[in-house]
C-alpha cells in the first residue's frame, strides 16, 4: 500500500463561520464553547484587518477553545434533520478530516495520512495563512487525530489577491497550478492523492479541478465538502486533455519565443496559448500541457493502444512471469511498433498493413474481454503472451524478399511469393539472431536469460507459421510444403504435444489468432479516403507500366528460345505464363527446374541463360500481377466501414457465442458490392467468402473444444435478427 496525501486549499471559514449560534440549544455544552470560539475569532479578525496588530495570542486562544469543542457533535449537525439546531462550527478543512476519519479510517493508518495546506497569500489577505497555522497546530496536538494525520507543511500560494485582479490573473492562478503540481510530483503512482478543493475563494475551484483532471497519473481523487453536506463528495475525473491541434498550430511559435526569445512570434499565438506564458517561458500548466503534446506527437496509436492491451490482457493477478512477459512485449512496441513493417517488400501493401496490428489488438480486446469475464482461466499467462506476440509479429516476414535454403543458397522471391510464404518468412526472421534483434525479439536464449522457458520462442514461431488458413490445422489435412526447402509442415494437431509440457494449448492460440486476423476486413486499414484514392490511382498507372516491362521481358525470353537451336526443357517457360491476364500459372515446378539448372555446375550455358531470363521475366510478370490484385484488394476493404465483435444472446462460460457484424461503408459499398471482380464473383460474395473461409477450417475445433461459436452478419440483417434477419455464415455443428 502506498502513501495517502491530502492537498487542501485553505479558506477563512474558521474566522467567518458562527455555527448559527442563535439556533443552538443553550443547554448543550457546545453552545458556550462555540460562543467563546466566535469571540476569539472575532478578535483575531479585527487584528488581521488592522494589519499592524499581531494575532499570536488570539491564535493560541482559538486553538485551545477549538480543541475543547466536541467534533462529533459538530459533524452530526450536518444532517439535514438537525438544521434547526445550528450548523457545524469547525472550519471546513477540519470537518473534512473528521468526516474522513469517521467514514473511512476505523483504525490509525500506517503511516499516517499526510496533509499539505495551501492558503492564498497576499499583503491584503493574511487571513487564510493564519487559519492554516491554526489548523496545523490543532492537527499536531489533538490526541484523537495525531495518529491519523501528519501535516507535512503549509504552502502559501502568493498572488491570489481579490483586490488586485491583474495580479490574481497573471500570478495567482499560475502559482496555484505550480503549487499543486509540485506537491503531486512528490508522490508515486502507488500513492493516492486527495485534492480537496473546498477551501479558499470559489473562483479557484475550477482551476484546482483542472489541475487534478489534467494530471497524467491515475492516482488523484478530487474531493469537495459542501457547506452542510454530511459526506465528502468525490468529483468524477473526466478524460480532459491537451488540444493537440491547438498546440500543433503554435508549436513553432512557442519554440521561437521560449527557446530563442524572439518576441515577434507572440502576435501570431492563439490567446489560449498566450495565457500560459510568463514572460518568455511557459508556466507550470503550460509545461504540463506541452509534455502531453510532445508525447502524443511522438507516439503512434499502435504504441499507445498496445501497451494498454498488454496491461489489460496480462494483469498481475495471473502471477508467475507476467511482468517479464509484459516487459518483452512492451520492448517490441518500443523498438519497432508499427515499423515492424519498415522495409516491406510489397510496397503496395505496407501503408494499410501498418494499421493492421492495431486493428487486431482491437479485435483481441473485443473477443477476450467478455470471455475472461465469465472464465478468467480461458487463457493462461503463457497462452496470452503467445497470442499477443503472434498478433504483433505474424506478418513481419513481409520485410524479407528471399528464402534461405540449404540446396540453393539464398533464393530471391517474387512479390507474390513473399505474400504466399510470408508466414514462413516471419518465423525465419524471428529465428535469425541478427534479424530478430532489430525488432527486439529475444529468441530462445534471450528468454532463458530472463528466467523464462525457451520453448516460448518455438510457440510464437508456430503461431506465426500457422496463422494462415492455408496451413493444415486438423488431422488428415495435407501437409504444407515449402518448395524451396522441401520442408513439410504437418497439421497443427500433430504439433500440439510439443507444447503440452509448457502448459500451452497451441491449437487454441492459433485458432484465436486466425479468427482475430480474419476480422480485419475494413476500411480503417487503408487510411483516409484521400489516401485510398491517390493509392489506387497510382496502382493503376504502375500496373500499366509494369505490364509493359513484363511484355518486353517475355519477348526477350522468346527471342532467346528461338536463338538457341539445341532442344531444352527450359524453352517451355511460356507454358506457365498467361500473357492475356499477365500472370503466372502453376509455375513452381518450372521455377525449381530453373534453380536446379543454375545450381548444377554441369548445366549448359544456354540452359543457364534461359533460366536467368525466365526468372527475371517471371518476377516482372508477378510484380505486375500483384499491382493488379491490389486494386481489388483496396476496393474490398473500402466496402466495409467497421467490423464489430459482440457477445450473442445466451453468452456464458460453456457457450461462448459471438456475432461478427460487418458494417457497410455507405456510398462506396453501394457502388461496388454488386460489381464483379476478375474472378467473376461480386465483391459482396468475395467478402463473405473470405470471412467465412477464415472460420470454416477451424469451426469444428472451436465448437467442440472451446465451446466457441460465431455468426457472421451484415449490419442490416443483424438489426433484424429478431424479425427475420439471417447471418450470411454460421456453423451449425
Present the secondary structure layout.
Blueprint: E1 4-9, H1 13-16, H2 29-50, H3 56-68, H4 71-76, H5 92-104, E2 113-118, E3 120-121, H6 127-141, H7 143-146, E4 149-154, E5 157-158, H8 165-184, E6 192-196, H9 205-214, E7 220-224, E8 233-235, H10 244-260, H11 271-274, E9 277-278, E10 281-282, H12 284-298, H13 301-313, H14 322-335, H15 347-353, H16 356-374, H17 381-393, E11 402-405, E12 409-412, H18 415-420, H19 422-431, H20 433-437, H21 443-449, H22 455-466, E13 480-481, E14 488-489, H23 506-519, H24 529-563, E15 577-578, E16 583-584, H25 588-599, H26 605-638, E17 640-647, E18 656-664, H27 666-672, H28 683-696, H29 699-705, E19 708-714, H30 715-719, E20 729-730
Parallel strand pairs: 1-2, 1-6, 2-4, 3-5, 6-7, 18-19
Antiparallel strand pairs: 7-8, 9-10, 11-12, 13-14, 15-16, 17-18, 19-20
Helix pairs in contact: 2-3, 3-6, 13-14, 13-16, 14-17, 16-23, 17-22, 17-23, 19-22, 22-23, 23-28, 24-26, 25-26
Amino acid at each position: 500500500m502506498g502513501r495517502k496525501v491530502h492537498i487542501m486549499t485553505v479558506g477563512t471559514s474558521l474566522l467567518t463561520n458562527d455555527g448559527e449560534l442563535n439556533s443552538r440549544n443553550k443547554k448543550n455544552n457546545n453552545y458556550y464553547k462555540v460562543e467563546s470560539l466566535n469571540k476569539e475569532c472575532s478578535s483575531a479578525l479585527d487584528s488581521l484587518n488592522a494589519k499592524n496588530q499581531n494575532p499570536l495570542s488570539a491564535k493560541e486562544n482559538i486553538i485551545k477553545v477549538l480543541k475543547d469543542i466536541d467534533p462529533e457533535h459538530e459533524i452530526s449537525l450536518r444532517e439535514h434533520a438537525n438544521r434547526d439546531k445550528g450548523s457545524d462550527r469547525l472550519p471546513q478543512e477540519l470537518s473534512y478530516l473528521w468526516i474522513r476519519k469517521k467514514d473511512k479510517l476505523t483504525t490509525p493508518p500506517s503511516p499516517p495520512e499526510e496533509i499539505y495546506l495551501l492558503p492564498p497569500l497576499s499583503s491584503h489577505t493574511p487571513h487564510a495563512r493564519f487559519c492554516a497555522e491554526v489548523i496545523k497546530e490543532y492537527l499536531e496536538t489533538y490526541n484523537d487525530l495525531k495518529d491519523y494525520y501528519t501535516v507535512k507543511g503549509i504552502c502559501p500560494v502568493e498572488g491570489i489577491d481579490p483586490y488586485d485582479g491583474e495580479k490574481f490573473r497573471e500570478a495567482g492562478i499560475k502559482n496555484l497550478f505550480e503549487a499543486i503540481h509540485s506537491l503531486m510530483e512528490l508522490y508515486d503512482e502507488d500513492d493516492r492523492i486527495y485534492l480537496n478543493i473546498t477551501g479558499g475563494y470559489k473562483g479557484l475551484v475550477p482551476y484546482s479541478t483542472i489541475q487534478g483532471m489534467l494530471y497524467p497519473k491515475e492516482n488523484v481523487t478530487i474531493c469537495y465538502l459542501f457547506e452542510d453536506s454530511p459526506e465528502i463528495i468525490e468529483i468524477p475525473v473526466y478524460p480532459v486533455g491537451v488540444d493537440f491541434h491547438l498546440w500543433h498550430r503554435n508549436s513553432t511559435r512557442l519554440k521561437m519565443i521560449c527557446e530563442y526569445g524572439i518576441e515577434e512570434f507572440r502576435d501570431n499565438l492563439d490567446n489560449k496559448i498566450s495565457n500560459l506564458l510568463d514572460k518568455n517561458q511557459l508556466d507550470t500548466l503550460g509545461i504540463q500541457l506541452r509534455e502531453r503534446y510532445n508525447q502524443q506527437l511522438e507516439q503512434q496509436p499502435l504504441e499507445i493502444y498496445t501497451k494498454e492491451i498488454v496491461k489489460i490482457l496480462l494483469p498481475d493477478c495471473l502471477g508467475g512471469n507476467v511482468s517479464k512477459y509484459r516487459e518483452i512485449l512492451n520492448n517490441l512496441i518500443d523498438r519497432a511498433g508499427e515499423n515492424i513493417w519498415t522495409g516491406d517488400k510489397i510496397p503496395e501493401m505496407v501503408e494499410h498493413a501498418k494499421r493492421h496490428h492495431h486493428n487486431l489488438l482491437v479485435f483481441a480486446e473485443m473477443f477476450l474481454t467478455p470471455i475472461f469475464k465469465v472464465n478468467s482461466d480461458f487463457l493462461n499467462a503463457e497462452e496470452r503472451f503467445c497470442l499477443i506476440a503472434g498478433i504483433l509479429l505474424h506478418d513481419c516476414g513481409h520485410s524479407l524478399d528471399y528464402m534461405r535454403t540449404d540446396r540453393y543458397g539464398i533464393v530471391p522471391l517474387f512479390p507474390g511469393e513473399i505474400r504466399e510464404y510470408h508466414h514462413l518468412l516471419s518465423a525465419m526472421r524471428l529465428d535469425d539472431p541478427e534479424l530478430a534483434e532489430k525488432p527486439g525479439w529475444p529468441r530462445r536464449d534471450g528468454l532463458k536469460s530472463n528466467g523464462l522457458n525457451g520453448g516460448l520462442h518455438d510457440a510464437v514461431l508456430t503461431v506465426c507459421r500457422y496463422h494462415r488458413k492455408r496451413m493444415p490445422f486438423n488431422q488428415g489435412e495435407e501437409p504444407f510444403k515449402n518448395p524451396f526447402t522441401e520442408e513439410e509442415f504437418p497439421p497443427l494437431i500433430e504439433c500440439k504435444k510439443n507444447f503440452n509440457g509448457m502448459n500451452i494449448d497451441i491449437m487454441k492460440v492459433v485458432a484465436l489468432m486466425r479468427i482475430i486476423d480474419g476480422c480485419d476486413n475494413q476500411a480503417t486499414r487503408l487510411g483516409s479516403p484521400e489516401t485510398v484514392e491517390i493509392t489506387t490511382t497510382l496502382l493503376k498507372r504502375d500496373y500499366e507500366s509494369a505490364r509493359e516491362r513484363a511484355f518486353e521481358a517475355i519477348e526477350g525470353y522468346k527471342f532467346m528460345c528461338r536463338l538457341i537451336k539445341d532442344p531444352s526443357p527450359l524453352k517451355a517457360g511460356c507454358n506457365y505464363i498467361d500473357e492475356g491476364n499477365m500472370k503466372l500459372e502453376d509455375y513452381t515446378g518450372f521455377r525449381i527446374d530453373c534453380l536446379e539448372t543454375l545450381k548444377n555446375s554441369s548445366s549448359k550455358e544456354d540452359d543457364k541463360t534461359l533460366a536467368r531470363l525466365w526468372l527475371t521475366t517471371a518476377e516482372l510478370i508477378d510484380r505486375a500481377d500483384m499491382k493488379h490484385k491490389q486494386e481489388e484488394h483496396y476496393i474490398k476493404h473500402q466496402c466495409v466501414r467497421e467490423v464489430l465483435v459482440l457477445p450473442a444472446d445466451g453468452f456464458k462460460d460453456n457457450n461462448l457465442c459471438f456475432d461478427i457484424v460487418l458494417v457497410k461503408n455507405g456510398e462506396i459499398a453501394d457502388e461496388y458490392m454488386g460489381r464483379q471482380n476478375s474472378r467473376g464473383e461480386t465483391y459482396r460474395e468475395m467478402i463473405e467468402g473470405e470471412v467465412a473461409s477464415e472460420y470454416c477450417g477451424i469451426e469444428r475445433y472451436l465448437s467442440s473444444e472451446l465451446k466457441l461459436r460465431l455468426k457472421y452478419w451484415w449490419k442490416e440483417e443483424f438489426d433484424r435478427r429478431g424479425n427475420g434477419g439471417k447471418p450470411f455464415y454460421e456453423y451449425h455443428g
